Amino acid sequence: MTPTVLITGASSGIGRAAAVRFAEEGWNVAATMRNPADAAELAKMDSVLVTRLDVLDRDSIDAAVSAATERFGAIDALVNNAGYGAYGPLETMPMEVLRRQLDVNVLGLLATTQAVLPGMRRRRSGTIVNVSSIGGRMAFPLGTPYHASKWAVEGASEAMHYELRPLGIAVRIVEPGGVATDFGGRSFVASYDDSVEEYLPLTAMLASALSDDDTPAAGMQPSECADVIWQAATHDGDRMRFIAGAQAEQTLASRYDADREEDFLARSRQQFGL
After folding, report:
1. Is 146 a catalytic residue?
2. Whole-prediction pTM value?
């Protein structure tokens, strides 16, 4: 039978590219997003079902899983791609911003995974692909909530790997670095409070980076990241982590090949003018 994948956050960027890649490989694709009107082109593809899924709305998650199952018969793979980044000084960040970051990137991922697991468990087969980030294994200034969410995704994924493997369900983690998407726009929330002067140099640095046309678009193309997601979803071995892109590989190698953590942290502080 033709395998089926459900992808969250498929309206743009990595999620949309992944939907196209799986469809081109002959898979059925449930391309989900908060606003299905954003994916008119995907909806024209015969093997693609575009349906609403808001990871903050469990009813919409269950409805999307039901729609995909009714249309295609079963869900063989889940790609948890939906997410965004909240940046700013922790001290001045409103609690609602912190809470929403974790709700979307962590609890939304877990809720969507919960919804597909009963079917996979009954069939004793399936693959969960969680799109994390190099930011799930290292951190940058002003990214406290984002990095907290991605480190949580890494830990949750590793725990799921152990408990689901005996049931025939594989768990993979994809770790992109910079990807040429609109992450700096629609997928990015900046929370600054200029009244605390001590943080102004850092916030100015981030604002400058976001205004630089080269910085948000640096890195691999979404289609290249989609290739890695495809590899992760179809891998038949025990590999769990898939680093997406040479830039990500080099950055993580620098992080973990350091003789001492103090040396790496010192280099990073110097890089950020700290």
Report:
1. yes
2. 0.90
Active-site hit among 12, 133, 149, 150 = 150
pLDDT (average), residues 106-116: 98
Per-residue pLDDT of 205-243, as tens digits, reads: 776 665 554 444 457 899 999 999 999 999 999 999 999
| Beta strands 28-33; 4-7: pairing state | parallel
Place of tokens 């908060």: 34
Candidates 12, 132, 149, 157; catalytic one? 132
Name the residue with higher pLDDT: 216 or 39. Answer: 39
Active-site residue 44, yes or no?
no
Q: Is 211 among the catalytic positions?
A: no
